Amino acid sequence: MGDTMSNGTQGSQWKTLDKDLGRIAHVEYATQYVARPMVGLGIALAFIVLAGLGATLFFERQPTSFVVIAAAAFGAYMAINIGANDVANNMGPAVGANALTMGGAIVIAALCESAGALLAGGDVVSTIAKGIIDPESVSNSRVFIWAMMAALISSAMWVNLATWVGAPVSTTHAVVGGVMGAGIAAAGFGAVNWPTMSAIAASWVISPVLGGGIAAAFLAFIKANIVYQDDKIAAARRWVPVLIGIMAGVFATYLAMKGLKRVIKIDLGMALFIGLAIGSLTYAISAPLIRRQSEGMENRNRSLKALFGVPLVLSAALLSFAHGANDVANAVGPLAAIVHAEQFGEFAGTVSIPLWVMVIGAMGITFGLVLFGPKLIRMVGSQITKLNPMRAYCISLSAAITVIVASWLGLPVSSTHIAVGGIFGVGFYREWHAERRLKSSAANNPAVKRVAPEERRRRKLVRRSHFMTIIAAWVITVPATAVMSAIIFLGLHAAFV
Q: Which end of the chain is more exposed for a tag (fewer CB within 10 A), N or C?
C-alpha cells in the first residue's frame, strides 16, 4: 500500500517536473522569439554609436564638437530609416512578382544603393531642402545648427513611426517638413519659401497620379499587344525587346541626369540622346536573346512571365542605384550643413558633402534595408495588389519615366509616391478591366451569372485598408514632421542657446 502511494507520489512529481520543464522550454522559445528583433535593434544602435565615434576621427576641426557627434549619430539613424522604408518601393514589386527572393532583393538593393550613393551621389546638395527656408533669415550659425538638428531628428522619428505602422512615406517630404517647422520656429513664417512649398504640396497629387497613369498605360499595352494575342510567343518576340529597349533608354536618361552630375554637366537634351542611343543598342542585343529564350515555350501566360523576369530584376537594380544617388542626401544633407557650419562658423544654402558623411549615409541605408526592410518590401510587393513580372515591370518603368518628366517640368517629386502610385495604378486598372470584361460577357451571353454588389466589393483587386493608410500617411507627413521639428527646435534652443 505504502509502495503504491510512494509510486503515485513519484508519478505526480514526475508529471509536475514535466510541466515545469515544458514551461521552461516555452520561456526559452519566447525569449528567442523576442530576442530576434532585439538583435536588429542592437546592431542598428551599435552602428549609430559607431557613426558618432567616427565623426570624432574624421571631423577636421579639433577638438571635435559634441554637436557634430550628435548630428552624425542622428544622420545614421535617419539613413537606417530610409533603408527600412524607402528601398521597399524599388524592390517590393520584384519580390511580390516572385522574380526575386527576399534575400536576393536585399543583396541587390544593398549593393546598388551603396554604389549609387558613393559613386553618383551629388557632391553639392541643397541642405536647406530645395530652398524651403532662407538662410539669411536665421540669426546666427548656432540657431541654424539647432534648426538642422531638429529637422534631422523629427524626420527620422516620423519615418521610423511610418515603417512601424507599415506605411511607405516620402523621406524627402519628411525632411522638407522638418526643415520648414524648424525654420518657422527659428525665424517665423516669413522665413519659408511658400511658392516652393506649394509646388511640393502639388506633387503629393501629381506624383502618384502620373506614376499610376503611366504604369496602367504600359499594362494596357502589354495586355492588348501580347497577352490577348492568339500567338502570345510571336507577339512577345516582337514587343518584349522593344519594352526592354525603352527600359534601358529611360534608365540611361535618368542616370545621365541624376548620376553623372559629379563628372559632367548634362542637360535634358543630351540625356535624352544618351538614352536613345543606349535604348537602341539594348533593343538590338535583346531581340535575338528573347527569340532564343522563347524557343519551345508554350503559348500561355506563364511563358510570358518568364520572359519579363530578368528585365524586371535589372530594372529594380537600376532603380536602387538611382535611389541611392538621389536620396542619400535626405539623410546626410542636414548633417553636412551642421558639419559645415560647425567647421567654418558660417552657414550656406549649399555645401560640399565630405566623404565620411556620404559613407554614413550609404552604410546606414544598407543596414536599415537588411535589418528592417523586409516588412515594407512584403507590404509594397504583395499586400496592396497582386503582382506578376509584367505588372511589376510596368511599375518600375513608370517610376523612371515619371521622375524624368517631373525633372523636365521642374516639379519636386517623391520616388516613394511615384512607385506606390504605380502599384495603385496597376491594381485599379485591373479592377476596371475585370469589371469591363464581366459586363461585356453578361451583355453577349445572358446566361452569365450576375455578381451581387457585395461580392463585387469583396473581389476588389486593391486592398482599400492599405490604400487609405498610405494616403493618410502621405497627407500628414509634412505637417506632422513640421510640428515635431518645431517642438524639438524650441527644446534644443532653450537647453543649449
A: N
**443 grid coordinates:** 451583355
Apex CA 163: angle with CA 162 and CA 167, to 5°?
A: 60
Which residue in the block uniquely carries the three cell numbers 517623391? Answer: 414
- For residue range 410-447, list pLDDT tens digits in order: 666 777 788 888 888 998 888 888 877 777 766 666 65
Whether 111 and 324 have beta carbons less than 8 Å apart is answered as no
Give 133's DSSP letter.
B
Three-point CA angle 91, 94, 99, nearest 5°: 140
What is the rounded CA–CA span in Å between residue 210 and residue 200? 15
Residue holding cell 558639419? 339
How deeply is 96 buried, as exposed, middle or buried, from its count of CB atoms within 10 A (0-12, 13-18, 19+)? buried
pTM to 2 decimal places? 0.81
SS3 content of the chain, % helix, strand, coil (to 5): 80, 0, 15
Q: Which amino acid is at 191?
A: A
User: Per-residue pLDDT for 387 more than 60?
Assistant: yes
**Ramachandran area for residue 64 (φ above 0: left; ψ -120 to 50: alpha; else beta):** beta
Residue 350: helix, strand or coil by DSSP? strand
Contact 316, 251 (CB under 8 A): no
Mean pLDDT along residues 113-129:
64
Q: How confident is residue 124, by pLDDT bands cut at 50, 70 and 90? A: very low
Does an H or E element contain 469, and which?
A: helix 464-496
Residue with cell string 546626410: 332
User: HSE on the CB side for 75, CA within 13 Å?
Assistant: 34
Neighbour count for residue 336 (Cβ, 10 Å):
25
DSSP E strands in 240-368: the ranges are 350-352
DSSP bridge pairs for 124: 352
**Mean pLDDT of the residues in the chain:** 79
SS (H, E, C) 153-199: HHHHHHHHHHHHHCCCCCHHHHHHHHHHHHHHHHHCHHHECHHHHHH
Q: Which of 420, 371, 395, 361 is nearest to 120 (CA)?
A: 361
- Asked if residue 339 lies in contact with residue 61, where contact means CB atoms within 8 angstroms, the answer is no
pLDDT given for residue 31 in this prediction: 45
pLDDT (0 to 100) of residue 39: 77
- Amino acid present at 456: R
